[in-house]
Amino acid sequence: MRFRDRHDAGQQLAQRLAPYTGHPHGCILALPRGGVPVAFEVAQALGLPMDICVVRKLGVPGQPELAMGAIATGGVRILNPGVIQELGVSAADLAAVTQRELRELERREQSYRGDHPPLPLAGRLVILIDDGLATGATMRAAIAAIQSVNPQQLVVAVPVAAGAACQELRAQVDEVISVLTPHSLHAIGLWYDDFSQTSDAEVQYLLAKTQGIQTPLG
To answer: Rounded to an integer, what distance in angstroms lies between the CA atom of residue 40 and that of residue 127?
Structure first.
């Protein structure tokens, strides 16, 4: 089984999340950029408000796809000491990557949200969505950021995930839901026919659409 694209993945994920339809205190939180089209479909199907939780992976110098940690809105930084030690990442390199990704995080916050205030999360059911879960580094940072504002319940939901990452996150949140949990994940994009990069313009368009503001795409 594969997903056609992120919108198809979101529609299938929404079926697994159907018990939360119309939850009086529920909301959807997407990890930009790829998590936004998935979350948009879930928010539409469940009739819940949607917002974003901006997270940036801290990639190993020279191997940017390999996460040595992640940062999230609210000053959250999660590190993977094993990766840092194994690859000999220096404190100076770690600080440089963190500062670079912090600038990008702030840019995305401003670009995507503008003057629109974030949804209040205290005391709410928060469903946190991305387009997939591999190592879980970025998701752990997002979880830490959300838990710092005291939600009533926190659910992580993704179309496809590595089993080990799901198991680890179940100890941190109330529920982890994945449509697919393949024996060998390899890469999230392998489970999509179309895994092309989500643009800033699409993120802005979908967020505006959930907020009832019509803006052109492109």
So the answer is: 12
